[in-house]
Specification:
By secondary structure, the protein is an alpha/beta fold. It has a single domain, classed as Nucleotidyltransferase, domain 5 (2-Layer Sandwich). Helix content is 23%, strand content 28%. The protein is built from three helices and six strands. Strands 1, 2, 3, 4, 5 and 6 form a six-stranded mixed beta sheet that branches. A hairpin with a 2-residue loop joins strand 1 and strand 2.
Length: 112
């Protein structure tokens, strides 16, 4: 399974469309382990581009601070589960919290 987390300066970028990079973690949710982490620079942000690009990368889940409802729909159309309202933390910390069922999500940090 692959989890994508938009990051800036080593932590979750609160609005995924404006992130500097994505950390794409290959995980084993049953063993609750991270096998690898790669850093990928996304293409320029335009509606629909990031969901399709992350789908091409084999991503199954995105953890974000904020994301608009249309973007969430586009991710769903690309078979990518979305978790919004995540706190600003390191990607590995967020992935482990999600696998352990302890990821605390707050309000969606995006209002469009």
């Amino acid at each position: 399974m692959k989890i994508a987390i938009p990051t800036a300066n080593g932590k979750l970028a609160m609005h995924f469309g404006h992130c500097q990079q994505f950390e794409i973690l290959t995980v084993d949710p049953d063993a609750k382990t991270i096998a690898s982490c790669e850093v990928a620079t996304p293409p320029p942000h335009e509606p629909g581009v990031l969901p399709a690009w992350l789908h091409e990368q084999g991503v199954n889940l995105i953890i974000a601070g904020g994301m608009g409802s249309r973007a969430q729909q586009l991710f769903a159309q690309n078979d990518i589960q979305v978790v919004v309202g995540a706190p600003s933390a390191a990607a590995e910390e967020l992935a482990l919290a999600w696998m352990n069922g302890s990821l605390v999500s707050g309000a969606n940090a995006c209002d469009h």
